[in-house]
Structure formats: C-alpha cells, structure tokens
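Contributing new records

If you add data, match the layout below exactly. Sequence lines come first and carry their own label; structure lines follow with theirs. Keep one chain per record. Anything else will be rejected by the validation script.
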Amino acid sequence: MRYWERYDRRYKVNNILNLCSFIRSKARKLGEPFSKRGKRGRNFKISPYDYLVSFILYTYLDLSLRDNEFLSIAIFGKHVDHSTFGKAYDRIPYPYLRRLLVLIRNEIENLIKERPVLIADSTGIRIDRRYGKAMIGCKTTKRREHDKLIILVEYYPENRLIPISNADALMHSDLLSSAMMLENLDTRSDYFFGDAGFDSEVLYMVCFKKGIKPVVKQRSHERRRGRLRKRAMECFDPDLYRRYRGVIEGVFGGMENKRLLFTRYRKESMRSKHIIAMALIHNINTYMAIICLFILIFSTNP
C-alpha cells in the first residue's frame, strides 16, 4: 500500500463535516458538556454538543471567535455571534475534555491488539503577548510566559501509532501528574519510559503496583537510594531507553507543526481547556487515520 493512497484516502474521509459528526458521536457517550442553568431565558442557539465541536475546530484550525461566527452558518446552519461562542466555551468543563480524550484513547486501544509502551514527558505552551518580570544579571527584564502540557502516551511499535492516553494542563509537577494519570489508567503496557524528571519513589510505587517496569533515567546524587529506586535501577536498560524515550518528541513536533502549542487566552481556566483540546486533536487525528486505513484495506481486497 503506497503512501499517497493512504494520504489521499485520509483527506477524502477526514473532511470537516465527518470530523464534526465524529466529535458529536463520541461526546454523546459522555452526555452534554453543559446545560441551561434554569427554565427561564432563551434556549441555546445551537446544541451544547455543537459548541463543543466548534471549540475543537477552533483549536484544530487556529481560528478566532470572529472566524467561528463567519463559519457558523456553513457548519451549523445558524448564525451565532462570536461573543456567544466565547461564553459557551467558558462553560465547557475541563474534566469533560479529559474524559473525552480518554474515551477516544480507549477506542484506539480496542482497535489495536498490540502491547504498547508508556512514555511520559512535558512541553511548554507559548502564551501570546503575555510577559512576566525576570531578573537577568542585575537587570529586571520581561520574559515570555509559558504554560505546561504533560502527556502520557502509548507507543505501538509495530503499528507506529502514538495515541495520548491522558494529559494534564493544571499541575506543574511532571512526576506527580504522571503518577496520578498512570494510577487511573487501564493499560496493557509492560514498560514505562521517562527522563530524570520522573525519578521518584511515588512513580515507582505506582509502576510496580500495576506490574509495569519503570525504565527511567535516575538522577546522580549522594543521598541514599530508597528501596523502590534500587529496584527501578535494576529495571533500567540503556538500549531500551535510547530506543523508545525520544518517540514522544514526535508528538510534540507534530503538534508544533500544526501550530497547536500556542494559545491566545488570558484566563488560566480557558488556557488549560485549550491545552487539553490540543491533545484531543492529536487523538482524533490518530483515530481517523486508523479508520481511513481500514477503509482502504477493505476497499482494495477482492
């Protein structure tokens, strides 16, 4: 099967209307992201599911609220004011987007029977026109502020797929966030890969509890190593670490190429939801690519 055939099929199937239908169908399994506060007042111009779809498209295509207003008739069949979109986005819960991310990840896992490897890492999210004070030498200067995206991915080596199993945009500690995500994750993986930032007894305890071998590069320091750190040191394989640790950088590179690692929001709550939507888009692209590949395989078979 040639590359151009997969590429052509992907963009024939993965059009904007199919993408909207896909997001709606997955969101309906979780229920409406928000509802009316009371019986009084006007009804929604479009459904809460459509507001969720527009928020993901807003992130996917790097649109503005004015762009959403401009495209609302073509996509939703009704004119919706840009301020209405902004107020609706503010009501979409952060946990709802994370549950949708995990839901799509679970469906990807059901399509692939291979055992993955877990890899965790974080990256900075650039905030547009937001600067903080910083002391460099003896001078006070401005420095661009960044938010953080922490992700836990599952890499399927034979199928070359890297879905994001969970993501976090609120916590600033890589190891505590990844430990919490791993604790709540139902996975078939046997290995966890991470750099020295994930060298922690807490993370090792979660890994060994789930029967996962932590291949984590440990920090070199003089203090006495704990029991779990000694056990994790025995699991460390430098060849496996070099082979799999850098795979996650391809996820960040792909998101950077799509101009996803960037936000214009001022409110911290909206920035965190926007960041989770970036991870959500990666899983949607991965799922749609698998579906397109299945369609191409079955359509070419006699």
